[in-house]
Amino acid sequence: MADIGTITQAPPADDRGGGVFLPRALRVLKLLGSVVVTLVGLAALTFMIGRLLPIDPVLAVLGDNATQEAYDKMAAKMGLDRPLLVQFADYLWSLLHFDLGVSLLSGRPVADEIARVFPATIELATMAMLIGTGIGVPLGVVAAVYRNSIIDHVARIVSLLGYSAPNFWLGLMGLVLFYATLGWVGGPGRIDMIYEFDLVPVTGFYLVDALLAGNWELFGNVFSHLILPASILALSAMAYISRMTRTFMIDQLEQEYVVAARAKGVGRWRIVWTHVFRNVAVQVITVVALSYAFLLEGAVLTETVFAWPGFGRFMTNSLLAGDMNSVVGCTLVIGVIFVVLNLICDILYNIIDPRTR
């Protein structure tokens, strides 16, 4: 009877589930609300940038010799004669429909232009991130384990060189050595001209498109063009990731639980990867995500040296030409990238570290 009474007094399963579901739902709603507020603030910032820059959007369309009548008609057509709040409301409405305006350089929608060039930058930055993370994380871990040894000093020198060496110089030297002299890699651009007709653009990612076509010769040509600029771009990311990983690991290796594990006879590398690295994984993820975001928006010099038709090069050309619709659109896309990557980091935190749930 006592057992039956105990079972009867237990809360129903639905109540227990509701008690867990409600806080999680509130956290999700809070997270989504913060994302919405951030995006609206980002839209307001880009809107003000477009209004404060010393470039007249009307004159950028008509030219400096436009008459006053033509100027007024174009300003009314662009909605610049309306109150500022009304302009901002129209701007938000356009963004909700993925309308970023029309590019002055090409006469096409800015969204279409960004969609055309962005896959090239994603492919380049992703390959660079894989190289930078694949080398940077183990290098930082080993440097922390063998602190103040020759391995640690070499790792720190490599990181310093990755920070200090300018990408444009490394790119030029890489082209001279590995392309012009040794012939190990492809030259500027994403693909050789003789292969352009063999590539059927499906996703915009040339490596993926080559795999979908089952053309391994084409895949090899695309990879040969990608590997050198990706490696150059990966140096700075590798330097930052290895340095931060080393710092995080050193802090954890000095904790008491490491001493206790060693006293129990647990192997060094089992402690490092099973216990210590798990505790710094959340911080490493943050560093990797931020590095990836900076690679996506900061590959201008690398794309210029290698004639890479990507996002950074498109944004630079638009800025030099006074194409403010494209510049503001690119700025907005960069901001959205950072917001999305931060959101992904928050989700990964909850998966990897139960303490954050």
Give an overview of the whole structure.
This protein has 357 residues and is mainly α. It folds into two domains: 14-96, no CATH class; 110-356, Orthogonal Bundle (MetI-like fold). The chain is built from 15 helices and no strands. It has helices spanning 2-9, 13-52, 57-62, 68-77, 84-96, 110-145, 150-164, 167-181, 206-213, 216-253, 256-263, 268-297, 300-305, 311-321, 324-352. The two termini are 39 Å apart.
Task: Give the helices and strands, then pairings.
Elements: H1 2-9, H2 13-52, H3 57-62, H4 68-77, H5 84-96, H6 110-145, H7 150-164, H8 167-181, H9 206-213, H10 216-253, H11 256-263, H12 268-297, H13 300-305, H14 311-321, H15 324-352
Helix pairs in contact: 2-5, 2-15, 6-7, 6-10, 6-12, 6-15, 7-10, 8-10, 9-10, 10-12, 12-15, 14-15
Keywords: Cell membrane, Membrane, Transmembrane, Transmembrane helix, Transport
Organism: Paracoccus pacificus
Family: Belongs to the binding-protein-dependent transport system permease family.
CATH class designation of the largest domain: Mainly Alpha
pLDDT averaged residue by residue: 84
Give the low-pLDDT segments: 1-11, 13-17
* Rounded radius of gyration (Å): 26 Å
Domain count: the total is 2
Order of helices and strands: HHHHHHHHHHHHHHH
Beta content: under 5%
Which architecture of the largest domain per CATH? Orthogonal Bundle
CATH topology (level 3) name of the largest domain: MetI-like fold
How far is it from the N-terminal to the C-terminal residue, by CA? 39 Å
State the helix count. Answer: 15
**Number of strand elements:** 0
Main sheet record: none
Helix content: over 70%
CATH superfamily of the largest domain: MetI-like
Q: How does the overall form come out from the CA principal axes?
A: globular
Structural class assignment: mainly alpha
